[in-house]
Amino acid sequence: PDDTHELRDFEIVNKFAVGDLGNDAQFQKFKEKYSSTVRYPLFHGTGYLGATFILRTGFKIVGESLVKAGRALEDGIYFAPNMDKAIQYAHDGLGTERHLGKGFIFVCEVVLGTAHDHKWDSGIFKSEEVVVRDPIKQVKIRYAYEIEKKGTKLK
Known about the structure:
The chain is an alpha+beta fold.
């Protein structure tokens, strides 16, 4: 099977602005305190099932046993500076035939907060990803893009 994850392999089927998910006040306060560390846009890719939870309750850090991809920088919510990286995670990939080939990219405003090295370079693997530990304070989802793999007929 074709396992490429590039933006050109997908099409945007829906785009919408995301309103307050219950964290706007905390986010604004943190943003004011650390205004010099704001990064926008940053992208987060997830499958259809994950997106339904995120759009209801915002980002939540789940335990290691529930994470299906990405823990190189420990527990947290991961963001990429480009859509091509985020799209690698924008699928369910759990054998849920109904949603394979379908996912979401969230366009987010992220406040990094106190100085940390959010990039990881082991000498073998280098990542430009950003990880946050307190998404209630640090993340505001601005837009959601629903995407489908081109040539995939979804039910």
